[in-house]
Amino acid sequence: MKFRRCLLVLFLSLLLLPSIVPAAQAQSQDISIFLDGQRLNSDTSPYILPRANVTMVPTRIISEGLGASVDWNQSAKTVNVKLNGNEMSLTSGKSTALVNGLPVPLDASVQIKIGRVMVPLRFISENLGLNVKWSQASKEIFLTSEGVVQPQPQPQPQPPTKPDIPVDIPAPVGNEVRGAWISTVFNLDWPTSKNHIEKQKAEFVSLLDTLQAAGMNTVYVQLRPAGDALYPSALVPWSKVLTGTQGKDPGYDPVAFMVDETHRRGMEFHAWFNPFRANTELSTTSLSPMHVAVSHPDWILKVNQQLMINPGIPEARQHIIDTIMEVVNRYDVDGIHLDDYFYPSNTTINDGDAFNRYNNGNFSNIGDWRRDNINAFVRSLGESINRAKPSVEYGISPFGVWRNKSSDKTGSDTQAGVTAYDSMYADVRTWIKNGWIDYIAPQIYWSMNFTAADYDKLTDWWVQEVKGTGVNLLIGHAAYKVGDLTQEKSWHTATEIINQLQYNKQYSEIGGSIFFRAKNLISNPMGLLDQLKLFYQS
Fold it and tell me: 455, 454, 471: which is closest to 510 by C-alpha?
């Protein structure tokens, strides 16, 4: 009986133990957990949840490692656990767990990570009597049941232990994402100087300092603007935005520098990729011999006076995944981010040959086939990231309207001329429901008074879409429209963005905001940067 009580307390501790591993230091190596000297194995590694700094473990560790009965209710998004007459329930999106009917606060909710249900660790050993030892060198947690005592009927949560963070890296500002997209295509945000290492570095440092002073804590930096790379790659050429010539070595590793500078400020660095855009023009004369449009012209489609990689070719999709995984494996990035460049909208796509070759009779409609191609890419990339570094967040920023209600009764009350599902073949709902991504960041680039696509109506719709799924929701805001007198009147002042942020506060499902784009913040149109600083300080 004493041994069973020990197992129960040990199990409770695994679910509720706070992270004892510094998040900034746990990105590069998997975390191992040992119980009384025996390793608890799983096909999904434990990982540190960014910003919340909480260790997450798969339920398989609970069921196989501890012998507990674990049941996942898909419709309710709830994990029910039973052990020796005791029961615990944890529901995705809720900040409390039920232990024998009593609520216990959680530092992080249940997550669905590439088809695996992940539960948080909380409560240190002193609270429940479990002996815990952390090895920084080997990234291992050692749990021993010796000396475990029966918990009180109504356990009181203790404040989580603050992780040891290097002195030059301040703690992140809460859990709210306050991000900015940094565009490199056409040298829009960075770098403005070419062939000058020190100027490029100084520009990025100044950019970070200005953004952080305004309250930003996350940057999404475009590392693959057009089938190329801002990092040394064995698969694709150096981007021309660094030197003016594609394939030319800039003389340093920009990504290594940017990640270090971002983390030095306690900010997060997310690597942003345009997955399928190959070139911003039709001509290939200025492209490097290792560029995909030169080495694999059979993979290329010509659309809208640009070149794109055909999503319908499996080898082409894998090529893109391989280039992204170079970044995941090489750098200490906090996340991988994709924008809305999937299939192009409102244009002719000459992919009939690929449809005939790769469809295998599965789809009679080419639109459904295209959506399946994107689904396969999204899922496969997520699985690759999770296998390599499960702590790395994976998210996508789709067009802000999934479908209009006129096309689908479950769609939003909008009249958009373009939709993610019908025009770009992005089946976002499937990504969310299956937990293939960690967060979704729709680009809701309209005002609260725009009849065809009201900001507030769309925000309400996206909140309902992610509710109870474990997928986090961020909102993409159109900072580039502020002060543009060609836009509707709402954008003639910075108040529109502030009103949107204020509107978001009513929803716990919204984990933060991302602003497009950095230069449109830095230029402080209509005092936007000043107002953001005041808003985030309030």
Answer: 471
Unique residue bearing structure tokens 């599965």: 362
**Residue 239 in tokens:** 């981007």
Instruction: Identify the H or E element spanning 178.
Output: strand 177-182
Distance, in Å, from the CA atom of 311 to the CA atom of 364, rounded to the nearest integer, reads 18
Closest CA to 367 of 422, 302, 304, 429: 422
Q: At what angle do helices 254-264 and 197-213 cross, to 10 degrees?
A: 30
Decide: 472 and 463 in contact? Cβ < 8 Å: no
User: What is the spatial distance between Cα 231 and Cα 239, in angstroms, rounded to a whole number?
Assistant: 8
- How many angstroms separate the CA atoms of 523 and 515, rounded? 13
413 has a pLDDT exceeding 70: yes
Quote the CA–CA distance of 410 and 194 in Å, as a whole number: 48
Structure-token match 């409102």, residue found: 346
What is the rounded distance in angstroms from the CA atom of residue 413 to the CA atom of residue 513?
22
Q: Pairing state of beta strands 268-273 and 218-224?
A: parallel
Q: Three-state DSSP class for 420? A: helix
213-235 pLDDT tens trace: 999 999 999 999 999 999 999 99
- Contact criterion met (CB below 8 Å) for 222 and 185: yes
Residue 33 and residue 141 in contact, taking contact as beta carbons nearer than 8 Å: yes
Name the residue among 459, 457, 455 with its Cα closest to residue 447. 455
- Tokens 């960041």 locate to 441
Dihedral Cα 454, 456, 460, 462, nearest 10 deg: 60
Amino acid at 60: R
Q: Is 345 helix (H, G, I), strand (E, B) or coil?
A: coil
* Interatomic CA distance for residues 492 and 18, integer angstroms: 46
Q: Quick check: pTM over 0.70?
A: yes
Q: Which residues contact residue 101 at a Cβ distance below 8 angstroms, ignoring those fewer than 6 apart?
A: none
Burial of 146 (0-12, 13-18, 19+ CB in 10 A): exposed
Which string of b and e fits 159-187 if b means at least 16 CB within 10 Å? ebeebebeeeeeebbebbbbbbbbbbbeb
Look at residue 518 and tell me whether its pLDDT is greater than 90.
Answer: yes
For residue 223, how many other CB atoms are within 10 A of its CB? 29
Single out the residue of 416, 477, 473 nearest to residue 445, CA to CA: 477
- Integer angstrom CA distances of residue 136 from 21, 129, 139, 329: 8, 22, 5, 20
pLDDT digits (tens, 9 = 90+) for 91-127: 876 777 787 778 777 777 777 665 667 777 653 333 3
Higher pLDDT, 132 or 161: 132
Q: Where are the alpha helices (DSSP H) in 230-365?
A: 240-243, 254-264, 292-295, 314-330, 352-358
Judged against a pLDDT cut of 60, whether residue 6 lies above it is answered with: no
